[in-house]
Design brief:
The chain contains 13 helices and 21 strands. The chain is an alpha+beta fold. The strands form 4 sheets. It has a 10-stranded mixed beta sheet with strand order 2-6-12-4-1-21-19-15-16-18. Strands 5, 7, 9, 10, 11 and 20 form a 6-stranded antiparallel beta sheet that branches. Strands 13-14-17 form a 3-stranded antiparallel beta sheet, with no helix packed on it. Helix 7 packs across helix 8, helix 11 packs across helix 12 and helix 12 crosses helix 13.
Length: about 450
């Protein structure tokens, strides 16, 4: 190596050493478990709608506009369009085995300087199905082999069979972005408003993060992605016959923060925070009377506890407020029993491996498990409704399954309970003593 090369190399190393930026990320993994602790399938439905400009895989639009070029591509390749876009909050591609909904991870950059960044996120156990801004690479769900034209013309198409994706068979997704990270000064002057912005989309923006821009000119205050999958984030929740909640940390690490929340039918709430979290393999039991009642129309104490818990895990105050406000209605305004807990760092990186180039000075990731758990008493009510022969009850159950965000998951639990009852009845009948003839 000559003197010029040595000087150039030294200069590059000095530049890399003197250049620093930080990465922060927050997001949610949603699961639903029966009172027995089993994670339920059917989590592909969405609760919070996304702006129309968000990108997605074909069939994962969840009410957003479909990529017309993709429709033409499929029509050209397959000779037919397998499914139309679904209604608001529903995808159109047939899916099964979905036990986890990964919602709204957002990645922020913090830098004084502008630079070019390459970001890769993997998803061990699921697909990254929606994103913004435009990606530069990543996985694409498989499509069935095209049928010969005569078979298409003769109707040899079974959309549920040919296009269905079963996430219980394993999945490893990914996404890549190549973006220009604008300087702090340029970011402050950039207008991010879009007429199709939604309230929650705006709430996720924080004033001190840099703006990112793709090669096609899409800009935002963060990198956004969502997905679905099949894996166990690591907190087992059961509810016993006495309605006590039991928790077991199976994540492999310490859970740094945890909050139990329940919204009751009368609008009041129960909640209890564990600021010290849960050690690895630790078990906790929480009877109903140990969860405090809060009758306030706006439970300020819950807001403060959640915000402070997230900030204690490394988020800035702006980020912690953005996360709580973005998910407030979903987290704290809907009925049900749920536990919010921050995944250990090792679990986060195992499920969502993250690579950023150039290398940041630090990476802070706060992924929250939103674990819905069904109470035995509520399961019995649903079971009676599902079994009813009354036409009004049948319609009520049908509408619930079709329209509730967790309707498919709850239907799966009720189906398991009914199957168990049938098996017990059959076993009891088989062991019943024979009646002797007179």
């Amino acid at each position: 190596m000559n003197a010029l090369q040595l000087i150039t190399t030294a200069g590059l190393l000095f530049a890399q050493a003197s250049f620093g930026f930080e990465i922060h990320e927050w997001g949610t993994f949603t699961t639903v478990s029966g009172s027995d602790g089993k994670l339920l399938t059917g989590l592909q439905r969405e609760e919070e709608s996304l702006p129309a400009f968000v990108h997605s895989h074909y069939g994962f639009e969840n009410g957003n506009p479909v990529d017309k070029s993709k429709i033409m591509e499929i029509l050209s390749t397959h000779g037919y369009v397998p499914f139309a876009p679904g209604n608001k909050g529903f995808g159109s591609r047939p899916l099964s085995g979905v036990t986890v909904k990964m919602e709204t991870p957002v990645i922020y950059f913090y830098s004084d300087e502008s630079f070019r960044a390459h970001v890769e996120v993997g998803f061990n156990g699921g697909t990254i199905s929606q994103w913004y801004p435009s990606r530069s690479g990543g996985e694409t769900p498989p499509e069935p082999k095209p049928l010969p034209p005569n078979q298409v013309a003769n109707g040899k198409i079974n959309v549920l069979r040919d296009w269905s994706l079963d996430f219980s068979k394993g999945w490893n997704g990914s996404i890549q972005w190549d973006v220009d990270v604008l300087s702090r000064e340029a970011s402050a002057k950039t207008v991010l408003f879009q007429p199709e912005d939604t309230l929650n989309w705006e709430r996720a923006r924080v004033p001190d993060a840099n703006v990112v821009r793709t090669d096609v000119g899409e800009i935002e205050n963060y990198l956004f992605y969502r997905g679905i999958g099949n894996f166990d984030p690591g907190l087992k929740l059961t509810v016993t016959a006495d309605e006590s909640l039991h928790l077991e940390n199976q994540s492999g690490g310490k859970i740094p923060f945890l909050l139990i929340f329940e919204k009751l039918a009368d609008g009041s709430t129960r909640w209890k925070a564990f600021d010290q979290g849960m050690d690895s393999s630790q078990r906790l039991s929480c009877p109903v009377d140990e969860i405090a009642i809060d009758d306030n129309a706006f439970p300020q104490a819950i807001y403060n506890s959640m915000r402070d818990g997230l900030a204690g895990c490394g988020l800035t105050d702006h980020e912690a407020n953005a996360m709580v406000q973005t998910w407030w209605n979903s987290y704290f305004a809907t009925p049900g029993l749920r536990v919010f807990w921050v995944l250990p760092d090792a679990a986060t990186h195992r499920i969502l491996p993250l690579k950023v180039s150039p290398k940041p000075e630090s990476i802070t990731r706060v992924l929250v498990g939103r674990s819905e758990v069904l109470r035995p008493g509520r399961e019995k009510q649903w079971l009676q409704l599902a079994k009813s022969e009354d036409s009004a009850a049948k319609n009520q159950w049908f509408q619930f399954v079709q329209n509730d965000r967790f309707g498919l998951a709850i239907e799966a639990r009720i189906s398991d309970l009914q199957k168990s009852l049938n098996e017990k009845a059959t076993a009891a009948a088989a062991h019943k003593p024979a009646v002797e003839a007179p």
